[in-house]
Amino acid sequence: WQHPAPTLHQSYDEYTRLRDAADLQTQRTYWREQLRDLPRQGKGPATAPLEQALAWGPKAGHTVTVTPEVLDRWDRAARDHRFSRSSYFVAAFASALRAIHQQDDIALLMVVAKRGSRVLDSAFTTRLNLNCVRVRFDGPQDDKLVLRVDETIRDLMRAQDVPFAETADDPAAGLSGEVVASLPTFVFQDNVVVPLELPGCRAEEVVDPYAREVPNGLTVEVLPRVDHALLRVTIRTDYLPYSFAEELNHHMLRFLEDGPAGTPTAG
Known about the structure:
single chain; alpha/beta; seven-stranded mixed β-sheet; Condensation_dom
């Protein structure tokens, strides 16, 4: 590095400066309205209390491949209709949850990066944040689903200075612990991993995609590769069966393989 990394004090001051510049009250109002009457995800008895959902527990995972042909069809539609890759994968996730839960009001937590700056971009820190994508389905064949999901994600990014943790604790939002504990997580893992080069040393990356414990009940990760993508579903096995991961991946892959034919034409 040509310059020293910012200190913790400098990083905090910069984060505070950006947060103070945001219209937080407008963002809080948006989240209160957006998440009003949000239902618990899944029917039947609660799978876990909030305390258990926030604790660490055993996990297992299931991974499938999105072929180059399927990915190319969606990417062409995304360019033509101006929606993002993450948007059509979120739509696939929401559709899979709808098929399993048999409910038309689906919500999930999406991992996003907090706003950056020259100072924060050069700091040794994490800028990960969580916020909620709520998807309300419009009939059995929701042809405008991907475009509405994309619009919802754009709204989320505009209101990202108020994290979900703050909204969950906001009495005006009215979110119960049972609802919060039921929300799954979505991660689009498009970060570039640069090889570590250490003079005089041999560096090797060791990856264990399924470490033994995880705090999340259900997480879907999209891992883009050069010409394809992987869908990795990770579950907490202390309150979700392994078959749930397989079923969820099956529905997501089916949505993607059906293609973006329902996307409306421009104009």
